[in-house]
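Could you join me in thinking about how sequence relates to backbone shape in a protein? We need material for that, and I hope you will provide a protein of your own picking. Once you have written the record down, we can walk along the chain together:

…
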Amino acid sequence: MMNNLIKGLMISLAAQFFVTSIWATELHPPIEAYGNLATNRFAALSSDGSKVAFITNDAESGSEVLAIYEIGIGYTDVIDTSDVIIRNIFFSDDNHVILRAAETRRLLGTRRFKYSGAFSYNLKTKKSKQLLRKTRGIIPAQTGLGQIVGGLKGTTDLLMPAYMGVTNDKLNPPAYNLLRVNHRNGKGRVFKKGRPFTKDWFVDKDGTVLAREDYSNKNDLYQIFTFINGKAEKIYEKKDANRYPFSLIGVKADKSALILIEEDQAGGYEEMYEMSFAGKISGPILTRKDADFDAILVDANRVVQGVRYSGMHPSYHFFDPVVDKIVGDLVSRLKGSSVTIIDWSDDWKKLLLLIDSADTSGAYLWVDTTTQSISMLNQRRPTITKEAIGKVAAISYPARDGFDIPAVLTMPPGLAFDQLSNLPILVMPHGGPASYDSLQFDWMAQYFANRGYLVLQPNFRGSSGFGADFRHAGNGEWGGKMQDDVTDGVMALIKNGAADPDHTCIIGWSYGGYSALAGGAFTPDLYKCVVAIAPVSDIPKMITDVKRKHGAYHWVVDYWEELIADGSFNKAKLKQISPARHAKAFTAPVLLIHGKHDTTVPIDQSYIMQKALKRAGKSVELIKINGEDHHLSESENRLAALTAIDAFVTKHIGAPE
């Protein structure tokens, strides 16, 4: 599936490495610089810290490749990955790179589902193998195939869970087993048997199963078992669990406890706890009173090293005080930048960082903590120079009910906040809605800022990262206070003279697409154009689809019930907040963009919106993208989408002079 490329491509990549810092200045890079996937978009560090793997788009050949860069030597290996959609990469040891890939498939008798798999590339033999391929008994139509939960010390074998059995066997339904997988041939064999409702495995490098996590939605029963004494012992159980009671995320470094995260029921921020192998829960640990956990940093066997906290700039805390000081000193040294730890060597003496700042579209740095040296390897988008990057600022504004709304503002290059005057404005509510925007390079926001637009990204109530009170304030407020928060941000910038009220447009993706349509339906006088990518438009239809997919009593249904309707579905209210039911109210033209293979928000949602607007005599265009998923994962399709949005926005609110 993946083939080695000619040596000439390595010369091209090496040239990219050296040219990055001296690239010719271009104030307005072409749209391809933004719309294509980032030139360097994934990175991983080998166990000894001597090699870095990148997924790279090579402009000369048009191919997407896995490129290996050896510190002090240069690019030494390249393999074509153009025929798979890469989701993640990492080193399983110094000589094997694992590539997680995905695509949308439909097998006989199944709905479309997100198929995933993993490939192992051997740096010595230059050969790749698909893991779990030709392993007998694996259910082919399963999402999540290719997950790796650990490795075994002294071997190159990997541990991978998968459903095995016969799909329609009601007496013996498929079980989620743990398999030991051979790197050389990709075949797996059962390492430990699971149950039909087993959800996860946590395994030590010596092969000890530290925990098996089970959850039966049918019985509302959550359990954790350990095998540290050689047989399954139940250490935790919760009955009447209509959803997971907490997130089990890893193992403590000394193997004395499991690590879990629980939302603070008192309304504060998320908290981390230890669970001993006797089932005793203690803590909280590594918890802050002003931030949630944005990410948990774990090794290959999910031993927890530390945490990254939420915030406009990332911040960290580690269990090991030596590592904590190393990272703290680095973040201080790179003050003013958003520092994301991508990977680290086993001894933590080498680090791989990604930084976002006013001078870069995102730069990968290799750090030697022993010598305190920092080397820039490459940039995500090397053709976008610092002169072309718009300043990104964290702002806040009061909503109409006094709620304080944090937001990100991206300004045209060369302008500071106090220089903004009567600019055309794009508001871009994020997806989720349980996510948030921070001070990082956003390819779409930066493209439009570069063309002279002011771009607002509001973190409306219901966003994650700002504590439970803020997140829960969005429950039941789709199309209500959540939408008011978006509206109030635009109005605040108009009121202070920064934005032009006659040149406003709303652009959103996923939940943000819903918010864009809600803006067109419920504040029709505010926006002159509406762009919705993969949006929800009809909530009753969405809920029906979720119930059909998961079952009426599944925890996913319970989750959406709480989020959208604050605990109780009311069909009248769901219709009231569905933009497709208010097509007559639209005055602004609408552009819909949707991947035909979207399994997150089916394209039916855009068909419904298009039909409703046409019936109401409104201006609407739907761009259907064949073979695409929810994320528009192919460069050519993402570029096509940005090109269409650019033309649409220019037509309706005018390109700035």
The first helix runs from residue 7 to 19. The first strand starts at residue 40 and ends at 45. The CA atoms of residues 337 and 357 lie 5 Å apart.
